[in-house]
Amino acid sequence: MTRRAVYDAMGGFDDEMGGFADVDYCLRVAGAGYRVVFTPHAALVHNKSSSTSSEADADEAARLRMRWSDRLAQDPYYNRNFSRDTPDYEPDLTAGVTLEP
Is 87 within 8 Å of 62 (Cβ atoms)? Predict the structure, then answer.
């Protein structure tokens, strides 16, 4: 939820960000000094368009990482169990695993 004045001041969603337009918007809002509130109790469903391809998703993820790499590296809400190295942020099955010699 956001006030219309904030949405307009931020320029709304950036269509070039595709499926990551909401993430880009929140990062711009936070960068402008507004608070972005997070709740782990929300259950959200993202119905992707059937015309979206995995190649488009990878391009959009790369665009997001290029634009926000510094901020994403310090994201306090990012789950460390997900990979930062894949375009779809798949689960990182090695996170927290310590291999003994």
Answer: yes
